[in-house]
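User: Fold this; tokens only.

Assistant: Input:
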Amino acid sequence: MLYNLLRPLADQSIAFNLFRYLTFRSGAACITALVLSLLLGPMLIRWLKSVQGSGQPIRPDGPETHFAKKGTPTMGGVLILSTLCVSTLLWADLRNGYVWAVMLLTLCYGALGFVDDYIKLLKSNHKGISARGKLIWQLLGGLAAAAWIAWLTKGALGTGVTIPVFKEVLIPLGFAFPIFGMLVMLGFSNAVNLTDGLDGLAIVPTIIAAGVMALIAYLVGNRIFADYLQLNFVPAVGELCVFLSALVGAGLGFLWFNAPPAAVFMGDTGALALGGALGAVSVAIKHEIVLAIVGGLFVVELASSLIQVFWFKRTGKRVFLMAPLHHHFEKKGWSEPTIVIRFWIIAMILALIGLATLKIR
């Protein structure tokens, strides 16, 4: 909004000229979201405690250490989404279709998570919306967002999938591309949700992934940098850098309250939305496979759950002591801080590997 209001005044004042620069607006979006989170967080947590009573329901079959967390409020994702959206609306170019496509998909998945969290609290049970109900909502939202993004991109690139390292490879999917994009959003949404099981475990890898994707969005949306690095240039997609920077700021602000011992959990409200946001951005900037590398921690967590379910149904035996993977290490006796910090380190390493694909051609 500020860009649209003040950008026309750039020729009259050097101060207004700053709004022409994507880097300035991205930094401002990050700081705005962070400050808003730190200011609003305490009030939101007090309100959540007052209305939720016993807080997020704890799985009865979960690790024993989790019972000490009883009473911790959930739905902290409301803080992330509100500061993310306010900051994006303030600093992004609101004429940009990519920004609206990604932000509305994020809010769509966030609304699903909010309803799911509300049902869990209402029933005082860790089970919320049925798996089928969640899946239908995610499929419809993801399909609409992917089709919108393909329409915005246009041409062969709009319905093609790029492959890291191979600069000239573009796999044409045609009308099947929205289905592919939908699956990316669905997969990452659920992957982040499964990872959100320990204090700070999901939010830091999300921040790391968002930071990497922000850099890629900036490079892909800039003709000079895209040509130099031999990346597929996607006009106007660089504006997503503002959205992702706001996500980083909102995530850091939430981490202030989610750091062990957590004062609030993000719940499905935040986890489903953040995963969907990362998936939608990767589809827009044509780096879906790179996101699978950068967000490899989420992929492994999701895979561990799928493997556990598949193998148990076939043999009646478990591959892991408990799924997803972080619970397996809890059952093995690792302390929660040890698991969280080691997973953070893995997320950083994967982010560096993902960035390396930009230069290797």
